[in-house]
Design goal:
The chain is α/β, with parallel strands linked by helices. It has three domains: 3-174, Acetylglutamate kinase-like (Carbamate kinase, 3-Layer(aba) Sandwich), CATH 3.40.1160; 254-258 and 339-404, VC0802-like (2-Layer Sandwich), CATH 3.30.2130.10; 266-331, VC0802-like (2-Layer Sandwich), CATH 3.30.2130. Helices cover 34% and strands 25% of the residues. It has helices spanning 16-31, 46-57, 63-87, 119-126, 153-164, 197-205, 213-221, 275-285, 314-328, 355-365, 389-399; strands spanning 3-8, 35-40, 92-95, 102-104, 113-116, 130-134, 137-139, 145-147, 169-173, 194-195, 226-230, 238-240, 254-270, 293-295, 302-309, 332-345, 372-376, 379-385. The strands form four sheets. The protein has an eight-stranded mixed beta sheet, with helices on both faces. It has a six-stranded antiparallel beta sheet with strand order 14-15-13-16-18-17. A hairpin with a 7-residue loop joins β11 (226-230) and β12. The two termini are 36 Å apart. The structure holds adenosine-5'-diphosphate, aspartic acid and magnesium ion. Magnesium ion binds next to loops.
């Protein structure tokens, strides 16, 4: 008897009919002789709606209260799924993150899982029940409820698969796998049969939201294979695992895009030791994560320094930076939010020359200006005008001939 851990995302449990669909799928897996643990996200846009509600009652929602509020979205979907399963005659029980033994640190809104106590889930599985766990949440030592950050149900699922000793973790969503680019924007994108953790981590971190990067990271650390497939079909899906070949015919495996980018430029920065520290230390202390950093060559010991943050963190970052601009004697600080990142990713690129040039030419031919460039060993990222993100994706997909398969 195998233990199967399946996660169903928000679009897969968006209404009553979809919840019934998930229930039917789970019953079929159970009838195949398996033990079944289901992890669910909140229905549809529930999490966004709850955040909106909190913002309607206050400008600064208390972080502890906000986490309790957001955790209720997943409680709703897990309980409804348990009811749907029972109405099909299956023995099922829903558990909150706390009841399921998901222990986290106390960093509200982006808590990290410290460990899983699998006792309660195991006890219910032994009673032959289908166990449904509310995703995206856990509890601190003090029994305060925490959430794991947006998209965190994927992380719950992989952590449970590891904690319960499952052979793999299955993530069901509204696409039938990981594609060479977001299939909503690039109709000719191709589904990948398999992909390694490293490439998937880079794709996910740079905007391919089909799996959360922390879930991929956990999978890699514990060598847990992750299957990404559709909850609306029985198509094969994409297996993320350690055995996927790194070097394939086409050295670019996928293209990601992310429109959650804001740019801050500090103009007229004195070019002397200690200045970068004076700028980035307070940002780090404010828990603001800075992505791309570019410093121009200095003229007469004066330079410009540009970096990017998530759009949601821009206001806070500007608040932190404005006094620093004064104290270091820089001229001013300006921001831009109408930006996007497009990234070309592939493990085989690190040993093959010419990929950057091909990317820049493709963007140039499309009339797209590159504002900033960053690279890792297996990725090249350009920051461009947000309005051109779709065009850039399609042009790059063509330039690297990804429609021919990888
Ligand atoms: P869920 O609600 O199941 O968590 P998400 O909306 O978080 O689903 O993720 C699925 C979406 O990810 C797809 O609908 C698709 O538009 C988007 N996506 C972005 N990049 C990719 C990619 N490379 N492959 C597949 N889907 C992608
Ligand atoms: N409901 C949460 C969110 O919308 C977690 C998730 O869906 O994974 O971010
Ligand atoms: Mg998701």
């Amino acid at each position: 008897m195998a233990l199967v851990v399946q996660k169903y995302g928000g679009s897969s449990v968006a209404d009553a009919d979809k919840i019934k669909n998930v229930a039917r799928r789970a019953v079929a897996v159970k009838e195949g002789g398996n033990q079944v643990v289901l992890v669910v996200s909140a229905m549809g846009d529930t999490t966004d709606e709850l955040i909106e509600l909190a913002n309607q009652v206050t400008d600064h929602p208390d972080d502890r209260e906000l986490d309790v509020l957001l955790s209720t979205g997943e409680i709703v979907s897990s309980t409804l799924l348990a009811m749907a399963l029972r109405s099909l005659g299956a023995n099922a029980i829903s558990l909150s993150g706390a009841q399921a033994g998901i222990r986290t640190d106390a960093v509200y809104s982006r808590a990290r899982i410290l460990g899983i106590d699998p006792h309660r889930i195991s006890k219910e599985l032994e009673k032959n029940k289908i166990v449904i766990v509310a995703g995206f949440q856990g509890t601190t030592e003090e029994m305060d409820i925490t959430t794991l950050g947006r998209g965190g149900s994927d992380t719950t699922a992989v952590a449970l698969a590891v904690g319960l000793g499952a052979d793999r973790c299955e993530i069901y969503t509204d696409v039938d796998g990981v594609y060479t680019a977001d299939p909503r924007l690039v109709p000719e994108a191709k589904r990948l049969d398999e992909i390694g953790y490293e490439e998937m981590l880079e794709l996910a971190s740079y905007g391919a939201r089909v799996v959360h990067p922390r879930a991929v990271e956990l999978g890699e650390v514990y060598r847990m294979p992750i299957l990404v497939a559709s909850s609306f079909s029985d198509k094969a899906g994409t297996l993320i695992h350690g055995g996927a070949p790194m070097e394939v015919g086409n050295k670019v495996r996928g293209i990601a895009h992310d429109v959650d980018v804001a740019k801050i430029t500090i103009v007229g920065v004195p070019d002397k030791p200690g200045v970068a520290g004076a700028i980035f230390d307070p940002l780090a202390r404010a828990n603001i994560s800075v992505d791309t950093i570019v410093q121009n060559a200095s003229i007469n010991k004066i330079t410009d320094l540009t970096f990017t943050v998530a759009k949601g963190e821009l206001a806070e970052a500007m608040k932190v930076i404005e006094p620093v601009v004064e104290s270091i004697g820089a001229r001013e600080c300006v921001s831009d939010t109408k930006l996007a990142k497009v990234s070309v990713i592939g493990a085989g690129m690190q040993t093959a020359p010419g990929y950057a040039a091909r990317m820049f030419s493709a963007l140039y031919e499309e009339g797209i200006n590159i504002e900033l460039i960053t690279t890792s060993e297996i990725r090249i990222t350009c920051i461009i005008d947000e309005a051109r993100a779709g065009d850039a994706l399609r042009a790059l997909h063509r330039a690297f001939e990804l429609e021919k398969g990888v």
